[in-house]
Specification:
By secondary structure, the chain is α+β, with helices and mostly antiparallel strands. It folds into two domains: 232 residues, Rossmann fold; 119 residues, OB fold (Dihydrolipoamide Acetyltransferase, E2P) (Beta Barrel), CATH 2.40.50. It contains eight helices and 20 strands. The structure holds adenosine-5'-triphosphate and magnesium ion (MG). The site of adenosine-5'-triphosphate (ATP) has 13 residues, from strand 2 and helix 1. The site of magnesium ion has 4 residues, from helix 1.
């Protein structure tokens, strides 16, 4: 394996707009060829972070390094980055083909090179027949694809993408996700990708930075972020989660027994419970719960009633309640119509694997 090279580095970067802190003391290293996603709710500072990497905004504090060089004060056009803007920012007076060709022309590519590359990209983003159209004659999704092609065609070292797929319908979005990921791998370009779609982040990224109120709450692989969220915000932002307080009623080896309600006792790994504590927060993902009609005795098994059900296409969401009034949700796959289904009013048994239940002192 080649030694890793840091391509983008933020050192203690903050950005204030007057009194308002949009980004607070963010430090981050992004490796060459990495696909890093900034994931977070609206207004958390994702675009501001990108603008400081591209140079369209300057940090109030901290440094920005690109390929080992401090570029904190360097203007955007002298940085080895390209950006796909959230608002597309196409040139309105240029055609689709001219928009895509713009960067190549500026770099002094030959007519033949430009024609070939533009042709390739028109095909990649499925805009055949639209070459001579002006942006005003395109739909939002089509404009977004032109913006994507225009930014990537020059093969910059770093590409910053601000919600580049947000205007596409689900089908096109999924195919563009695959295309983009494949291209990024093939060209070895470092991607800093912004989205507030958790599924998109989980499927595309090498690593994800969860951003909340201008700070990075957690940085890790999709698996780490999903299965070992460090804060409640991360757990709730990336997928659904059931969280419930409980009390420790026993310890066995490294395991801890936590009583949540009458008849609901979990055996969990005590590794995350450092120090003394009597009460803890127990959490589990809705899709980790197995439902059964017949009683099974064992650990992490309890009875509950299905109080409501919602059809969600690939999955069904079930709202559950135990006799003691504990409420939680369960998600089951709609794999096959012949499969067992659980319906409103049914009493069932819920079971969880020990490793799918997480207990932390507090969140
Ligand atoms: N030029 C500015 N002047 C004042 N406040 C600003 C400015 N730019 C951004 N902000 C504020 O900084 C915060 C972060 O904005 P930013 O655009 O980075 O959010 P975001 O995470 O990209 O959100 P979204 O998902 O909605 O695009 C917001 O509260 C925003 O109102
Ligand atoms: Mg934004």
């Amino acid at each position: 394996m080649l030694p890793e090279t840091t391509m983008v580095e933020l050192q203690g970067v903050s950005k204030r707009f007057g009194e308002f802190v949009a980004v607070e003391n963010v430090s981050l290293k992004i490796q060459e060829g990495e696909f890093l996603t900034l994931l977070g709710p609206s207004g958390c500072g994702k675009t501001t972070l990108l603008r400081m990497i591209s140079g369209f905004d300057f940090p109030t504090e901290g440094r920005v390094l690109l390929d080992g060089v401090d570029v904190t004060e360097v203007p955007p056009y002298r940085r080895c980055v390209n950006q796909v803007f959230q608002s597309y920012a196409l040139f309105p007076h240029l055609t689709v083909a001219e928009n895509i060709a713009f960067g190549l022309r500026a770099k002094g590519a030959s007519r033949e090179q430009i024609a070939r590359k533009v042709g390739e990209w028109i095909e990649l983003v499925a805009l055949q027949g639209k070459e001579q159209h002006k942006p005003s004659a395109l739909s939002g999704g089509q404009r977004q694809r032109v913006a994507l092609a225009r930014a990537i065609v020059c093969e910059p070292k770093v590409l910053l993408l601000d919600e580049p797929l947000s205007a596409l319908d689900a089908k096109l979005r999924h195919s563009m996700q695959r295309e983009l990921k494949e291209l990024q791998r093939r060209l070895g370009i470092t991607f800093v990708f912004v989205t507030h779609d958790q599924e998109e982040a989980l499927t595309m990224s090498d690593r994800i930075a969860i951003v909340n109120k201008g700070r990075i709450e957690q940085l890790g692989t999709a698996d780490e972020i999903y299965h070992a969220p460090k804060t409640r915000f991360v757990a709730e932002f990336v997928g659904q989660v059931n969280v419930m307080p409980g009390e420790i009623i026993g310890r066995e080896g490294g395991d801890v027994l936590v009583r949540v309600r009458e008849g609901v006792v979990f055996r969990v790994d005590g590794a995350l419970l450092v120090g003394d504590c009597a009460t803890v927060q127990v959490s589990f993902r809705p899709e980790k719960v197995h439902l059964m009609r017949t009683a099974v005795h064992g650990e992490n098994v309890f009875a509950a009633e299905v109080v409501d059900e919602v059809f969600r296409g690939q999955t069904d969401q079930l709202f559950m309640r135990t006799a003691s009034g504990l409420e939680f949700t369960v998600v089951v796959a709609n794999e096959s119509r012949s499969q067992e289904c659980f319906h409103k009013g049914e009493r069932v048994f819920c079971s969880l694997h020990r490793e799918d239940v997480v207990a932390v002192k507090e969140w």
